[in-house]
Design brief:
- With 467 residues, this protein is an alpha/beta fold.
- The protein is built from 13 helices and 16 strands.
- The protein has a domain at 85-322 and 332-405: Metal-dependent hydrolases (TIM Barrel).
- It starts with 6 loop residues before the first helix and ends in a 26-residue tail after the last strand.
Length: 467
């Protein structure tokens, strides 16, 4: 009669045998772009070399690179490899309808509600909470909103951005005057979580006095409001510390999501369209005791030396001023307007010559390709091509603290690359492919820039080829 072993003994024996078996080999995906011209940005140009990608990361780059036999090899003859371009201030990948609830003003008036995504409409239908008065009544403040929580992989604009060579964006919410925290996101990925590179790009502040029936209803009032918010946040921080030290005798401070959002700000982004506003924003940043990045700066040709003295980085809006299409042809323009229009494209060259760290924003431009055309205007007015490229890559990564992962063709960095058939700023150059996290995306048909549908999925977004 055959003897039967207990089930527990059989399970133990199986565990021992499995422990001795060799582990399955790691599945490694290799891609090599061979015999291409490589512009790493952080070093000299390699006229003929290879970029080797491994599981979404740059594994090697140089004139002599050993390519594994299993690698998928792309012939780079006649092609140039650049780092993926970075839009330093964008809304790409975020809902195009602001996710803001109805905002009460500090004096009893209300701002008109904006169209909301379905999940936030449902929240708005819940019973209204008692509205606070005084310091806790904070109009236009959404400091708790995080762009990283709003990312929509199906945004149709992502394909258009990739077609122009952009692989990454610092995306910021735009509602209210304290709009929320931006995130550095890659412009490709199957899920929102895959796209987020850094969830803390900074807190976006704006001067939008319209819509409020009371304080703050002017730019100066808004700046005073910002200062009060930061004072309240510091008081809140101290109250939390006192309570943590002595919870028996110190009352617990009520949770305040607006102030929590202020305390979580690594940097603030402040508007500075002209020299006067620049001085005000530099003073405001000093009062807030928070590192600042100025955005706008179209008149950088006048502001470069002062910005260099302050050590403040800049996100340059390259939507150069032009005469309105429907302007009255009989109306004479002032010398000041003509001068600003003429000199605005020289701002990048002035900032670069002064040593100001600056990146570039697509804000207000009709298409991503318009960014390159605008910088080409600046190149024609004295901007060096290498400075233009750095503004679109490594400088943007440095401003947002992700230069260890993005911004150059360098071993160990995320495999975000642009492969073009010529100089990036030449009109005839075409983008042949981009890589995002090592996944190849080919150019796709240009589609109208329409908002994503209710499910966060717009028209075709161009799926990548995962190798």
């Amino acid at each position: 009669m055959r003897k039967k072993f207990p089930a527990t003994m059989l399970a133990a024996l199986a565990a021992v045998l499995l422990a001795w078996l060799p582990a399955p080999a790691e599945s490694v995906s290799w891609t090599a772009i061979r015999d291409a011209r490589i512009v790493p940005v952080n070093g000299p140009v390699i006229e003929k070399g290879t970029v080797l990608l491994r599981n979404g990361v740059i594994a090697a780059v140089g004139a002599q690179v050993d390519v594994p036999a299993s690698a998928w090899v792309i012939d780079g003859t006649g092609l140039t490899v650049y780092p993926g371009l970075i839009d330093a201030m964008s809304t790409w990948g975020l809902p195009q309808t602001a996710a803001a609830a109805q905002t009460a003003s500090a004096r009893g008036g209300q701002q008109q509600p904006q169209q909301q995504p379905p999940q936030q409409q449902a929240q708005a239908q819940q019973p209204a909470q008692a509205r606070s008065r005084g310091p806790l009544d904070r109009p236009g403040t959404f400091s708790w909103v995080k762009a990283a929580d709003l990312v929509q992989p199906g945004d149709a604009r992502l394909g258009q951005a990739r077609n122009a060579g952009f692989t990454t964006a610092a995306a910021f919410p735009r509602q209210g005057i304290v709009a929320g925290h931006g995130a550095v996101i890659n412009l490709g990925g199957k899920t929102a979580g895959e796209m987020v590179v850094a969830p803390d790009a900074g807190l976006y502040l704006a001067l939008r006095p319209s819509g409020y029936t009371g304080f703050p209803s002017t730019p100066m009032g808004i700046m005073a409001y910002f200062r009060q918010l930061w004072l309240d946040a510091e008081h809140y921080r101290q109250a939390l510390a006192l309570y943590a030290a002595d919870p028996v005798n110190i009352p617990r401070p009520p949770y305040d999501r607006a102030l929590e959002g202020i305390l979580g700000a690594k940097r603030v982004l402040l508007p500075a369209a002209d020299p006067v506003q620049m001085e005000r924003m530099l003073k405001l940043a000093a009062d807030l005791k928070t590192p600042a990045v100025l955005y706008g700066v179209v008149r950088g040709y006048e502001m470069a030396e002062r910005l260099k003295q302050s050590g403040t980085p800049v996100i340059l809006n390259v939507r150069w001023p032009t005469r309105e299409r429907d302007a009255d042809p009989e109306q004479r323009e002032s010398y000041r307007e003509l001068r600003i229009r003429d000199l605005a494209p020289t701002s990048p060259a002035a900032l670069a010559a002064a040593g100001v760290k600056f990146a570039v924003s697509s804000d207000g431009l009709e298409t991503p390709r318009a960014v390159l055309r605008a910088l080409k205007q600046s190149i024609d007015r004295g901007l060096k091509r290498e400075d233009a490229l750095r503004a679109l890559t490594l400088s943007a990564a440095e401003i947002f603290g992700v230069a260890d992962r993005l911004g150059s063709v360098e071993r160990g960095k995320i495999a975000n690359l642009v492969v073009a058939d010529g100089d990036l700023f030449d009109e005839k150059t075409r983008i042949r492919m981009v890589f995002i996290d090592g996944v190849r995306y080919l150019p796709e048909p240009e589609l109208p820039q329409t908002p994503p549908g209710p499910g966060g999925r717009g028209p075709t977004s161009g799926e990548g080829e995962e190798q």
